[in-house]
Amino acid sequence: MKSETLAELNAERAARRPAILVTDVASGVQRLVKAADIAADPLRNELSAHLRMGKSGMVEAGGTRLFLNVYAPTARLVIIGAVHISQALAPIAKSLGYDVTVVDPRTAFASPERFPDVPLIAEWPDVALPPLNVDHYTAFVALTHDPKIDDPALLHAFARDCFYIGALGSRKTHAKRGDRLRGQGASEADIARIHAPIGLAIGAVSPSEIAVSIMAQITATLRLLPKEKDQAA
Amino acid sequence: MLNRDEDILKAAEDWHKSGHGVALATVVETWGSAPRPVGSNLVINDEGTFLGSVSGGCVEGAVVTEALDVISSGQPKMLEFGVADETAWNVGLSCGGTIRVFVEKVG
């Protein structure tokens, strides 16, 4: 690998931007394709499929065997609300490889006893979120049921283009939330991005089951094409 | 996506910048049961120091030896490891799989 390629790859990784290293394994010739350049690449179909699955692998192109090594950032989960569902959700997300952070300004909720081994920020979203550098490789869930906490957090998630945004609440609650968020400048497209009621419809009852349904929906959003997602929903 | 051992590439860059010969080994194909997934990296410098893993310990020794060769020749190599065969000193994967490892020089 050329040292410039290695430096470029490390810069992309440090910025939490995905990149794919394409190697002709017969000759050793290599090129780095940044996420933003995939659409214009002759290998765009193979590259985007491998990136979506987060999977490296060998492909054939024009009679040569190419190895695609996918370097994608570690996905993160930001949970607004140190509530009962969050206590079940955080360990499941960790086991799936997510970096998890819980935000709740209510210190009685956001206590280390209730959330061992999870980074916990007992601050309001306007203080807690900007330093977290929430980005496209972040799943974002608002679970407090309290508009004072959830609403500003959701506006932040829209602005940072999180790949998944979910919020707890019935259809009726969600309709009211939509009105409030519109009043604070959210667009129809923003509102449409919220998964609410949150989670896949698996008949979840307990907090743990709801956590499973949320994590399943996040996984589907991460891995499936839009058409496949409709079938899963 | 959910990659955890990525700082080894930073180490490779730092080693190279400080004047070391550096090689990068990558698992490019696996068959059967393989201890580390395709895409896993191991970096090696000219002192034989290595970071990362391509097999969870089974064949790292052999990869490091080959990597020192690649550092001096500059020519990339494709290595293949399967189950250790009748020659007891041959390295291999006790789990029964086969892996192919691409080794290249940095620089």
From TrEMBL, chain A:
Entry superkingdom: Bacteria
XdhC Rossmann domain mapped to chain residues: 77-218
InterPro entries named among the record's database cross-references: MoCofactor_Util/Proc, XdhC_Rossmann_dom
Pfam families: XdhC_C (PF13478)
Name of the molecule in the record: XdhC family protein
Species of origin: Bradyrhizobium ontarionense
UniProtKB/TrEMBL annotation, chain B:
UniProt organism field: Bradyrhizobium ontarionense
Domain of life: Bacteria
Pfam families xref list: XdhC_CoxI
InterPro entries, per database record: MoCofactor_Util/Proc (IPR052698), XdhC_CoxI (IPR003777)
Protein name from the UniProt record: XdhC family protein
The XdhC- CoxI domain, residue ranges: 15-82
